[in-house]
Input
Amino acid sequence: MEIVKQQLATMPMLNNLISEYIDKKPFDGIKIAMAHVLVANTLPMIIACLAGGAEIRITDTNPPKNDRVVFEFFEKYNITFDHDFKDAKEFDVALDCNAYFRDNPPKIGISEVTRSGIHKFNDIKLGYPVIDCDNSIVKILETFIGNPLSVEKAFGKYIGDPKKILEKKKVVIMGFGKIGRGLARVFGKYANIHILEISQSVVNRARQLGYNADLISSVENNDKYLEDTKLILTATGFPDVISNNFSKDIIMKIDYRINIGAVDEFGKEYSEDEVFMSKYIPFNFNMSPPTANEYIDGILVAQIRGLEILINNKLDNKVIKLPEELDQSLIDGFEHYNYSIRGIISEYFE
Output
């Protein structure tokens, strides 16, 4: 199908994985449940699973939109899709996004790709292993570099020239994890960045990097940090963080309120119309693709490799970090096909 060829043209590591799987068939006889954002540049990971011999069933956790080419793809390859499919108990493993299958897991285990999903898995006593693809260097390519560049592009498309709108203005970034650090790096070209965090050690790191940063505490204390703010970007990975920590009247004085997280970080106090574009999906998911292919190539391979780890090993029932050797090999692959990235990453992540 032409759309898959177009995506794979800029995803060399997934291309290599598909070639390997056509030969080795590591998923022969394996049933895979998949809950993922379904856009054109996630289709190659489905092709990889099929090439590996898997039987795959797909549901959609949080679609940015019903992408016509995705459903044409399903029809062409006779792929089973059920928007409301939630129970993976009859499957062997799952490719998960935001812990969709947490309470109805597959027989062997889950490969999870998001920080919000890992938070959810850590909240319960697990009866199965979870491969944590989020806590990896290769995920930094997507979240620290690719995602913020797409947010910048979306800002320019849907709001206007960030240089003109934000120059010398105050931009508050909620959360200074991978995405937050990338947003600070990108939008720091235009604006005065102010970081708000729940971790004192992360606040300290933000200050070391030259940003104004403060610790979230009481609502009364937090509100003062938002004075004269032009733009707020939420990137904590936690739902309701704005509703729980700030007065609505001070938030509504901010010109642009944007959610970058995979969950509703503004929360119950805010309607859909009170957050720019949407409070339910990350702002960059209004773009197609949401993140440029070169930055998600490696992490999609990592998540699929996570299924191999689950199938081929007897693992403890806990969250398990992606193996360092695999992680490093994917960074090597990115640098081989694109450009050197380790220096940029090490500057922000010690």
About this structure: The radius of gyration is 20 Å.
